[in-house]
Amino acid sequence: QKEVEQNSGPLSVPEGAIASLNCTYSDRGSQSFFWYRQYSGKSPELIMSIYSNGDKEDGRFTAQLNKASQYVSLLIRDSQPSDSATYLCAGTDSNYQLIWGAGTKLIIKP
Amino acid sequence: DGGITQSPKYLFRKEGQNVTLSCEQNLNHDAMYWYRQDPGQGLRLIYYSQIVNDFQKGDIAEGYSVSREKKESFPLTVTSAQKNPTAFYLCASSILGGYTEAFFGQGTRLTVV
Fold it and tell me: Which residues contact B17 (CB under 8 A, 6 or more apart)?
C-alpha cells in the first residue's frame, strides 16, 4: 500500500515564528511532491512543487526533499494568522498517480 | 480566465435520487480527477481520466459514475447506490497525470435531505 503520511496536528505556532510541516512517503519510485493549503470549506490551492533533492524557496515558503530518507517538508517563515489552514502533502507514485496525505492542521497564534 | 469550474456550489439530494456534478476546465489539461472529502479527512479518489473516452476507478468508485466525452468536461453522477453521499466533492485537473501539479475547482458540497 503506497502511503503519504502526515501528522494530523493541530500544530500551534506563534505569529512570526517558523512553522515546520513534515511528510513521509513509502514509494521509493515517487518523483514529484506537492504542498497544498486548504482553508476550511474551500478547495486546496497549490503552494509548492518540488522534484529534486534539496531546498526550493518561494517567498516565505521553503520546501525540502530528501529522497534517501523519503521525507519532504514545508517551512513557513514569519508565520501569519492568515497561514492558519490545513496543509496537504501529495506525491506521485511510480505509476504517476497522486497519493495524498491526510493533512496537518496549522494554527498561528497572534 | 483559465481554470476549473464546478457547479453547483451546493447541491441537495433526496433519498433514492441520482444527481450529477459538473466539472469543466479550459486549461487544456489531459488528466482530470474527482475526489471526495469528508469533514476532517483527506482526499479520497473516486475516478480519474487521462484521456477522452477513458477513465479509471479510484479507491471509492462504488455508487458513482463518470464520463469523459470531451477533454474539457468530466461530470460525476452520484447514484442512489451511494448510501452515504453527503460530502465535499472536488474536481481537479493536471497537464499530464500525476507527474505535474493538479489544480482544483471550488468544490461542490452535496447534502442528502
Answer: B80
